[in-house]
Amino acid sequence: MNDHKHKSDKPEAATEAPVSLDFIRAIITEDITNNKNGGRVHTRFPPEPNGYLHIGHAKSICLNFGLARQYGGLCNLRFDDTNPTKEESHYVESIQKDVRWLGFDWEDRLFYASDYYDQLHEFALKLIRDGKAYVDDLSADEIREYRGTLTEPGTPSPYRDRPVEENLDLFGRMRAGEFPDGSRVLRAKIDMASGNVNLRDPVLYRILRATHHRTGDKWCIYPMYDWAHGQSDSIEGITHSICTLEFEDHRPLYDWFIEQLGIHHPQQIEFAPLNLSYTVLSKRKLLQLVKEKHIGGWDDPRMPTISGLRRRGYTPSAIRNFCDRIGVAKRDSTVDVALLEHCLREDLNKSSARVMGVLRPLKVVIDNYPKGQVEELEAVNNPEDPSAGIRKVPFSRELFIEREDFMEDPPKKFYRLSPGREVRLRYAYFITCTDVIKNADGEIVELHCTYDPATRGGDSPDGRKVKATMHWVSAAHAREVEVRLYDYLFTKEDPLAVADGENWLDNLNPGSLEVVAGCRVEPALAVAKAGDRFQFERLGYFCVDPDSTPGKLVFNRTVTLRDTWAKIQQKQ
RNA sequence: UGGGGCGUCGUCAAGCGGUAAGACACAAGCCUUUGGAGCUUGCAUUCCCAGGUUCGAAUCCUGGCGCCCCAGCCA
Predict the structure, then answer these.
(1) What's the per-residue H, E or C state across A2-61?
(2) Nearest protein residue by Cα to C1' of nucleotide B22
(3) Using the CB atom, is residue A19 less than 7 Å from strand B?
(4) In this structure, is the CB of residue A23 within 7 Å of any atom belonging to strand B?
(5) Does strand B come within 7 Å of the CB of A326?
(6) Which fold has domain A357-470?
(7) Are A365 and A391 in contact (CB under 8 A)?
């Protein structure tokens, strides 16, 4: 293409998308141009089934499946199940559910590293025959000592130069179960002096009498991840093995294996894993939170797990959108959790039905409203989506409003209800506060107001304005529900940054969950089902929790609405 | 002189020798029957630092500095 010839061609230049590719897409685009792998793009998402997926995995899932979709390729789901002591089929089920929920499909390409145990065993035999692997009798501690340090080379094991026949015999007997757990390992014979510790004769197989979630007791030796991972990718014909940064120095090892074996060579590309402010994303730590019961479980709505986010009320598209927006690069980074929340609100704003709910009810009596009268007022279901239609909301003489929407002695910028002030009740009437009733302790227990019948629906014929519009609920018609309010699980932007003598659990936010009982919602919500999402006007987005029973609904607050008033208050 | 990576706005992130995109956050204003949503505007004279090459450098070279990862028979 001659750029100069097209420079004057403005219309075309203008319509051309100024696509900037992230470094991975740049590599893949280049590979396709060069017809590498015949132009094929085949990725995979390779979780270990030892825990639940979290938002960091979502980044990888969106990347791998997204790449396949974008380039007309395929993406496999493969469980890297090489450690039976930590893996459970319970986890493989949750992982599949989560990937599907996120909107991705591996079709018929569901694999397990354990599918390849026989092949991997053959590969090991080849290495031994080629004099590239040996059985080592050193103990785990000895192996560590012989490995050297980061600055000093390692020392060869005294068993390093065993003859091939002896290695073959010993490895066969390892597999046959003749030796106790941990007594011997199979090691690759590479370079004990390498500056890259991964190349100092890494362990390929260990003896482990543990029942595997899929292969049962067929094996008593199990491949190490490093020995299984690259070859699994190779076997599946993966073209681009995308993984996180910490595997960068494993790449020379994987390349060595592939080369010794003479098999298909996937290209490994490493990217920076996701970090999120106010959030912990380490499987080990998440497991600890669950095991020590600091939260309710893997799907606790405060957890950054996919199942937690789902229960909290997140949508798959909000998460996907977030993953698109954070980009992919190699530098360490921590994404502001506010971006995740922004993506969430953006999605929920468009799709959620509006509804009125009062978290902390304050009774209001409309003195001049006829006793016993009930009006069905029209309310818009979603101003962002006219097709969502309208609904009827009952109005009567006794109502509940939000406690914090009334102040007896309001500060300057508070323009909600206060004595003598007129406000609008959304879709209903203008009301004016005439009296404040208190109990013996001086707490406000009830308000008396008058309404202007001419303002039915919320507009005044005389054109007079009102500063505030408030949500409300008819006392006699409202349903009582429980609402769970969530805040960040950690009080620190970086939960792992701790002072001496403290640990990260000290940063747990004691106020991350607030259960509010006695909330009232409009009657239309009575039929809501677990998982249904709503916007409670002026408050936020809420989602019906599976803990709900037919008699009592439980709502999770997914995220608040942006709250300008709260900001003003903070400044004051 | 152990090896491997990375350093562009408060946070992500484009940029690939031609004179700093975009998003979030933040700020101001408009609009509003959600103090919601939406809209407008502002927000890096400068790219970790120092030299050098060049008419011209965030981009090239040299030397520093800083941060992250690696010494599981975990993944």
Answers:
(1) CHHHHCCCHHHHHHCCCCCCCHHHHHHHHHHHCCHHHHCCEEEECCCCCCCCEHHHHHHH
(2) A325
(3) no
(4) yes
(5) yes
(6) Ribosomal Protein L25; Chain P (2.40.240)
(7) no
> How does pLDDT run across A289-329, given as a tens digit for each residue?
999 999 999 999 999 999 999 999 999 999 999 999 999 99
Residue A377 Cβ under 7 A from any strand B atom: no
Residue ranges, comma separated, of all CATH 3.40.50.620 domains in chain A are: 3-271
Nucleotide nearest to A567 (CA to C1'): B35
In angstroms, how far is B15 C1' from A5 CA? Answer: 24
Candidates 3.40.50.1480, 3.40.47.10, 3.20.20.70, 3.40.50.620; CATH matching A3-271: 3.40.50.620
- For chain A, the C-alpha Rg in angstroms (whole number) is 31
Q: Which residue has the tokens 């179960």?
A: A177
pLDDT per position as a tens digit, A93-134: 999 999 999 999 999 999 999 999 999 999 999 999 999 999
Q: Å between A52 CA and B13 C1'?
A: 29
CATH 2.40.240.10 segments of chain A: 283-353+481-571, 357-470
**Using the CB atom, is residue A90 less than 7 Å from strand B?**
no
Q: Which bases of strand B sit closer than 7 A to a protein CB?
A: 2-8, 10-16, 21-27, 33-38, 67-75
- Fold for A283-353+481-571, please state it: Ribosomal Protein L25; Chain P (2.40.240)
Question: Distance (Å) from CA A419 to C1' B16?
Answer: 66
Coil, strand or helix at A112:
strand
ipTM summary value: 0.97
Here the tokens at position A181 are 């757990």
How buried is residue A109: exposed, middle or buried, by Cβ count under 10 Å (0-12/13-18/19+)? middle
Q: What is the pLDDT of residues A420-457, one digit of tens each?
A: 999 999 999 999 999 999 999 999 999 999 999 999 99
The answer to whether A338 CB is within 7 Å of strand B is yes
- pLDDT at residue A12 is higher than 60: no
Give residue A521's pLDDT band: very low, low, confident or very high (50, 70, 90): very high
